[in-house]
Amino acid sequence: MRILFVDDDPDTRALAIRAVTHEFPNATIREAMDLTSLDEVLQERPPEILVTDFDLRWTDGIKIFDRVKAANPLCCTVMFTGTGNEELAVRALKHGFDDYVVKGSKQLRRLAITVRSAYERNNRLRELGESRDLVLKELYHRLHNNLQLVISLLRMTEKTLGHESDRQQIADLGRRIQALSALQEEFYRSEDFRRVNFSSFLERLARNLLETSGGRIELTAELNLVELPVDLAVPLGLIANEILNATLKHASPDDRPGHLSMRLEQIAETLILRISGDGAGSGEDPDTAKTGLGMRLIQRLATQIEGEVSLEHHAAGAAWQVSVPL
Amino acid sequence: MAGERSSMSEKLRVLVVDDEALVADFIADLVEEAGHEVIGIAATREKALEYLERSAIDLAILDIRLKGRLNGIDLAQATRAREIPHMFITGSGDPSTREAAEATGPLAILQKPFSQERLVSVLSQMAQRDHSLN
Prior knowledge:
The complex is a heterodimer.
Chain A: E1 2-6, H1 10-23, E2 28-32, H2 35-44, E3 49-52, H3 61-71, E4 76-81, H4 86-95, E5 99-102, H5 108-160, H6 164-190, E6 195-197, H7 198-210, E7 217-223, E8 227-229, H8 230-250, E9 258-267, E10 270-277, H9 286-289, H10 293-304, E11 308-314, E12 317-325
Parallel strand pairs in A: 1-2, 1-3, 3-4, 4-5, 7-9
Antiparallel strand pairs in A: 6-8, 9-10, 10-12, 11-12
Chain B: E1 13-17, H1 21-33, E2 37-42, H2 45-54, E3 59-62, H3 71-81, E4 86-90, H4 95-102, E5 109-111, H5 116-133
Parallel strand pairs in B: 1-2, 1-3, 3-4, 4-5
């Protein structure tokens, strides 16, 4: 156990050290009286517990906190100060101090108990965090393996089907599952699980789908980083998947090079996603578009997020626009 | 034997290692449909090592976690020692596992559920490279 004490007054330091080592008899004690001695301690081996005053001639307790936490983010921190007022206590706790004790002759025992309980609380939280990470990793692994199993089962089913159109339906279903999985991966990466980097997802999705074109289709992506909450990202992600698939299916006929462009931006309170393909015939055939499963999914999911979808066919291809209120 | 490339042909001899039987079969199917040969399917590290010892292999496709352990990384080191290229197909998204996997120098790391096209594209890049080497 390594404990660092920072206080300008040597007597206070000595008393605080005596009180705290009573709780941690085997601790290695370090003291800092100025920036040089602080940096020496931090470079040598950062402390596991910090006890610091707020008012120091050479800096203040908040800056000490920042330096120590930069060296050891898991360090337990307690402010021990004579300039005790509620405002400072709130400021210290808001800044991240684990606890706060006002100096006084009868407060030394309290300091020792506070440091002990803050340290134990910190450890419990860390253990909880570690086991949460472990569960999360396991769940992620299981989820992705199971999704892979679903896709493998679909593939086995696909091989038993005689009609090309039936096989195509199964392949489309596989791509939908793949899109959901790509979204899942973004959630995992975000470490938030409530919001997702939608630009990163779109880019990943498009690049995965473009592999099918064997490099014939060029992608232009202008994606302004937009983080979306999960309840918007999932339906919008599935809509984007349907549009990209429809666009790619008909882009680049006869092996001619095609072009796919994606643009995502937020204008005021509206998110706008534009996807267009310039291969001849790009986009779904207008006659089947209204009844096809892809279009039905797009429309149904758009209703869910109160979005609007428009599709324009033109000589060079098709342009889609999805607008969603944020 | 292991490490020697099939000459005059771009057909790769591939070892598939995955402890999930249906996923292993799925990967093997894709490899064969892409015109390559599946030398064997192994569900454990030991079985995979047997194949590496016994057979001439051009590419090993490895899962990272076999029966709950990170054996795929060991296997990657074994393939490297025999100068056999490898790639990973994994369900793990854990950054430290990924780092360990990348350190073995794989041709690619595909995240499960992987894109079939991406696997086919890695295979064809490797086959073309081998063909031009021969």
